[in-house]
Amino acid sequence: MSETTFNWGIIAPGRIAHNFAKALKVVPNASLYAVASSNLERAKTFAQEYDCEHAYDDYQTLIDDPQVDAIYIANPHRFHFECAKKCLIAGKPVLCEKPITVNEAQVQELVSLAQRHQTFLMEAVWTRFLPVWQQVKVWLEEQRVGELRVLSSSFSFNVPRDENDRLLNNELAGGALLDTGIYNLTMSQFVLQREPSSIVANGLIGETNVDERTSVILDYDGIASQFTCGLNATLDNSFTIYGSNGSIAVDSMFWGATKAVLKVKGEEEQVIELPFRATGFEYQIEEVMNCIAQGKLQSDVISWQDSINTMKTMDEIRRQIGLEYPFLNRD
């Protein structure tokens, strides 16, 4: 890292990587230095679009580049583990798209590697860092809605039936739970600050052997979080927190929200609107850079234990709904 510039590398310049690259432009002292893709032309096109100097057709070349200060991993879920593992072994800090791995065993191994190599590792749960959700956290800490009772959320769209798309591809760890349900789950744990005491799940496994709809009730010692995630219907996609004295409602598309409403008994409704500076990814980028500057190996906002708890819960949900990924036994 130079004295003034933090150099980022991107592995896999797909759809979500564009949000990352656009966000980098508003982060002080941050630069997109290199991008790597299995397709060199794709890497070059992406690099040109974002004024990036270096394009590689090999992930290891990017990992080994001494000028790269941290790597953002944005390939399909199945490949997160192997890419993050290579980065950590090389001592390269990692921001890995969610879900950080496909199961708990994999994330446990990554955490062990991060500890052994004293290298920063964070799951890219951008939602936790958004200004609106940080305000929600303040309201919760102030107990504005009283004792928490129920969380209710959804993240479901009626996606086009393209069986070649990663969303419906079992070999790429597709399905609703890992792609959209992780938001409902990780934000439930953000609100409640612990893992659930019991889990009840029901799902619809489609023709391509991925879950096209999963509905879950998580019990946190008397507080319920109920959610549906899916690929076969469009729901309202909001997140509401109900307490003994009111509620907090985060707008539709809660995972990328800029608006929340606080309703407290006997008080006037409070509406906050907090727009992004860019795509919303800038806040997690800044968290990574700040943590590394402070010599931290993990973030307090999305800790290693948070990621472990999320994957542990998802493993149990998959077990209950019969969602299996055979490649886990082959890799």
TrEMBL record:
Residues 133-248 form the GFO/IDH/MocA-like oxidoreductase domain. GO terms for molecular function: nucleotide binding; oxidoreductase activity. It comes from the Bacteria. Transmembrane segments: none annotated. Keywords: Oxidoreductase. InterPro entries: Gfo/Idh/MocA-like_OxRdtase_N, Gfo/Idh/MocA_domain, GFO_IDH_MocA-like_dom, NAD(P)-bd_dom_sf. Residues 6-122 form the Gfo/Idh/MocA-like oxidoreductase N-terminal domain. Belongs to the Gfo/Idh/MocA family. This is Gfo/Idh/MocA family oxidoreductase. The lineage of its organism: Bacteria, Pseudomonadati, Pseudomonadota, Gammaproteobacteria, Vibrionales.
